[in-house]
Amino acid sequence: AATVNGLMLVALVVAAHRGADIALLAVIAAIGGAATPPLSASMRAIWVAMISDDSIRTTAFALETVVMEVCFIVGPLLTAALVVVSGPGAPVLASAGLMFCGTLALSTAPPSRDWAAGPERHGNAAGPLASVGVRTLIYVYVPTGLAFGVLAVVIPGIATRHHDPAAAGLLTAAFAAGSLAGGLWYGSRPWHGPLVRRYVILAALFAA
User: Fold this and answer.
1) Based on the number of CB atoms within 10 Å of its own CB, is 126 exposed (0-12), middle (13-18) or buried (19 or more)?
2) Do the beta carbons of residue 168 and residue 80 sit within 8 Å?
3) What integer pLDDT is reported at residue 131 of this predicted model?
4) Where are the beta strands (DSSP E) in 30-136?
């Protein structure tokens, strides 16, 4: 996945520099996006196998979220700097290289090499999708993902409309700072109530 993702990002920059049609650029970007390695999900699967204590695992998940938000804060600022210094293609190429190296580091780490999937519990081709719980989570996360996807397009659009494209990095970083604060707050507190109720409350707060 990292190889395909990296190649598509490089192809996106090359095609853009050669004046390719927007439809071709969209296809290349879609393939690259579909091949984004699921690093966060993979790391969480490893932690489930490594950490048996539920409270410690909750803190670990929150920590992973905080680290992710730090990337979302620093990344857009670095992106804006690279755009100013080297043009819009530079951060895309840097992203391709970092994604590939990061995936290689995670996949070759001892905990990754030792991890094995559990026994297959579904007797049909749907796999995990046969579970009502898994399907429900997908129904919830599709609109959540759309919200973040829209923001990724709208924030640079707002900055461009106000004749300050570089401000997109600052706006995105500010948005991520709120998520970081939420992750720190959540991960630093002990939780004793039912996980489902906690999830519903947090989902409602996110919608609000």
Assistant:
1) exposed
2) yes
3) 86
4) none
Dist. CA 32–CA 27, nearest whole Å: 9
Q: What is the pLDDT of residues 124-170, one digit of tens each?
A: 777 888 888 889 888 888 888 888 889 888 998 998 899 988 788 78
Length of the chain: 208
Collect contacts of 182-187 with beta carbons under 8 A, ≥24 apart. 183/62, 183/63, 183/65, 183/66, 183/69, 184/62, 184/66, 186/62, 186/65, 187/58, 187/59, 187/61, 187/62, 187/63, 187/65, 187/66
Closest CA to 173 of 187, 160, 159, 189: 159
Q: On the CB side of 72, how many CA atoms lie within 13 Å of its CA?
A: 20
Contact of 120 with 128, CB cutoff 8 Å: no
**Angle at which helices 167-187 and 132-161 cross, to 10°:** 140
- 148: tokens are 């973040």
Burial of 133 per CB tally in 10 Å (0-12, 13-18, 19+): exposed
Q: Which residue type sits at 58?
A: T
pTM given for the model: 0.67
Cα distance between residue 138 and residue 179, in whole Å: 21
Q: pLDDT, tens digit, for every residue of 44-101? A: 888 888 888 877 888 888 888 888 888 878 887 888 888 888 888 999 999 999 999 9
Rounded to whole angstroms, the maximal C-alpha distance in the chain is 57
